[in-house]
Amino acid sequence: MEETWNEVLRDLSVPEDIATKWWSQIMVQYTESARIYHTMDNYLRKKFEIYDIMVKDNISERSAFVLAMFFQHYEHDTNVYGDSIDKNVEHVKNFFKDAGINHEGLISTVVGLLGAACESGSSKEGIDAYFQDLELAALGASPDEYVEYITDIEKEYSNMPAHFYRSLRLKVLQTLLLIPKIYSTDLFYEKYETQARENIEKEINEVLK
């Protein structure tokens, strides 16, 4: 991942000391002790593995996509998710300022991806559709990996009363099943849709026990 970070920043002519400084800050953020799922290894590395195989060759705005991936959960507040989005938009804007990047199109795309991460109705094969599908890829993991995923997510939100967390989780899962297609892009739909629905249905049954 560090190699990908450095490659993108070299392409954007960012000074090496700035690239190193912000990589160190990203490492600090994603290795916070409170994180269980949204960590460097458990979350970000897996996403980049899927990105390399399924996304990279299907988008043109790779620099924007990669930067948005790094900053999507740069700050991760398990109390107020919406507030985290706003904060992460500010963090990436601070990064652009520090890096001397003034490309309005790039900045707008990254900020748009960060804001679109929790929205629906994206274009079928656009960059935002791939960004959302990549975030939802964990839903289509193998049954064993899915159990690990939901266990880690619940631990990460352990600050919430268990009944409250499960109630919120149930609403999210039930909403997902109502969507005709969880994944917007054909590539992700074909690979993950069936398994994701099986995983979600099984989790719903477990929550309702």
Please explain how this structure is put together.
Helices cover 70% and strands 0% of the residues. The protein is mainly α. The protein folds into two domains: 1-135, no CATH class; 141-209, no CATH class.
- What summary fits the major beta sheet? none
Q: What general form does the structure show? A: globular
Helical proportion, percent range:
over 70%
Number of helices: 10
Beta strand %: under 5%
What is the CA-CA span between the terminal residues? 40 Å
What is the alpha-carbon Rg in Å? 17 Å
Q: Which blocks of ≥5 consecutive residues have pLDDT under 50?
A: 117-122
Walk me through the topology.
Layout: H1 2-11, H2 16-30, H3 40-55, H4 62-72, H5 81-99, H6 104-116, H7 127-135, H8 143-156, H9 162-178, H10 186-208
Could you provide a short overview of the structure?
The chain is mainly alpha-helical and 209 residues long. Helices cover 70% and strands 0% of the residues. It has helices at residues 2-11, 16-30, 40-55, 62-72, 81-99, 104-116, 127-135, 143-156, 162-178, 186-208.
Descriptive labels:
10 helices, mainly alpha, 2 domains, 70% helix, single chain, 0% strand, 209 residues
